[in-house]
Specification:
2 copies of one chain form a homodimer. By secondary structure, the first copy, chain A, is mainly alpha-helical. Chain A folds into 2 domains: 8-70, Arc Repressor Mutant, subunit A; 75-206, GntR ligand-binding domain-like (Four Helix Bundle (Hemerythrin (Met), subunit A), Up-down Bundle). Helices cover 64% and strands 4% of the residues of chain A. Chain A contains 10 helices and 3 strands. In chain A, strands 1-3-2 form a 3-stranded antiparallel β-sheet. Chain A binds chain B through residues 6-7, 48-49, 52-53, 56, 58, 64, 77, 80-81, 83-84, 87-88, 90-91, 94-95, 143-146, 149, 153, and chain B through 6-7, 49, 52-53, 56, 58, 64, 77, 80-81, 83-84, 87-88, 90-91, 95, 143-146, 149, 153. The structure holds a DNA duplex.
DNA sequence: AGTCAGTCAATTGGATACAATTATCTTGCG
DNA sequence: CGCAAGATAATTGTATCCAATTGACTGACT
């Protein structure tokens, strides 16, 4: 534990989150409290707190007396997350068209340049940067509440993509990021939203969310619940 | 503990949340872990977990090694929460105009009738019902992710109102609720959103969010941060 | 052979004990 | 009389311990 975070809980929380979105911990994988604790050299108490938070963020689910697992969002859930993400990101754009801070465009363009510099590579870095562009947009609204929600759904989308998408490459088309910036600069909320919709639609589409049969639960739910106790 | 919730943590969590939005626990009030624990007859462990969740929900803040307090949102924070709430509720309306479930209008109208039946009374019941109308709207979208976010901001708005509003009475004008339902039924998203904006604007306005000087922090922040460590 | 009951191992739910940090109070000095 | 420094009390941060629940395995019975 070379981390000297505010609390150990924060450190473990961040580490686990990173591990999940980088697919080191794959969906469905068990997360026994003492195993994780031994791994990081902390006690179950810490791990448990971190897991509570991760559950709140939708990256982990816990089953009573069974323990914690990396979340395996069904296609239903995935679509819900994507829907909320579209809503929130559109809201972000609307707000930015009215009040983009002075340094906003510089920061955005710097970020895009950074994304371009790793173009082609499929590593964790490009995944992370792709998500951070959207979080940066949210930050520029100056609204921390909105930023937190956007962060959460972006993270969950990363997890979803790792489950359903074939390739992670070009999760976010960098040039679309540039186009969004330009539309906002022009104050053209409609166009910016349109590009964002297309952008996220492409991402979601690559996840094959609607092409395949749905989760077992949603299939069986059509056959009645006579046996459901 | 007559509660037989899934876990004690959940029970304490719900109890504390209810106590906070009903103003039994007032903003700024300390929440020492063992005091709360003794009160409910549980150990600090449980209380702590509940507090972690409440912090995530924005209803309490914890200061390192100092303990937990009922949140006292500054006017800045309050405006941020209200802004997100407006965004989310507008999104809800847009979605409902496209896909209101069959039983939706019945449930909404039943709820409004319930609100009317307690009209005039200022008790915790009317506060709760006022918030639940908005949560019900979110539920009808069928999107649990969206519902959770709406619930959170509605709850935080309740806390904010208890801090800044003079009177709690008519936090939500019941007839405006009816108007919103009608606009959605007509499929007129624009009008529904307009009413909702007015509706929430009235609520926020009663909170005197912009009339008074802001928090000490935001005032001093204009004078530079040279001394900030 | 399939189903059901009973036992056992594994893991979490919760409580208590100890360590670390912070705020308060006291005391001494200028 | 005001201020600073140190001691003290209170509270949180973390670890460990016990109990309760769950899942799997085994074995008997239909």
């Amino acid at each position: 534990m070379s981390e000297d975070k505010a609390t150990l809980t924060d450190a473990v929380h961040d580490l686990l989150r990173k591990a999940i979105i980088e697919q080191a911990l794959k969906p469905g994988m068990r997360l026994p409290e003492d195993t994780v604790g031994e791994q990081f050299g902390v006690s179950r108490t810490i791990v448990r707190h971190a897991l509570v938070r991760l559950e709140h963020e939708g990256l982990v689910i816990t089953r009573r007396n069974r323990g914690a697992f990396v979340a395996e969002p069904s296609r239903d859930e995935a679509q819900n997350v994507f829907e909320v993400r579209r809503c929130l990101e559109n809201d972000v754009i609307r707000l930015l068209c009215e009040r983009m801070p002075r340094s906003g465009y510089d920061r955005l363009e710097a970020h895009v340049r950074q994304e371009e510099s790793v173009r082609g590579k499929d590593g964790p870095v490009s995944i992370r940067l792709a998500g951070e562009f959207h979080v940066l947009l949210a930050e520029l609204t100056g609204n921390p509440v909105l930023t937190r929600y956007v962060s959460e759904v972006v993270l969950r989308c990363s997890l979803i993509m790792s489950l359903y998408a074939r390739s992670h490459s070009s999760d976010c088309a960098v040039d679309e990021h540039s186009q969004i910036i330009e539309a906002i600069r022009a104050g053209d909320a409609q166009r910016a939203i349109q590009i964002m919709e297309h952008h996220l639609g492409a991402v979601a589409g690559r996840a094959e969310l609607s092409a395949h049969p749905d989760s077992i639960q949603s299939i069986l739910s059509h056959y009645g619940k006579e046996l459901a106790q």
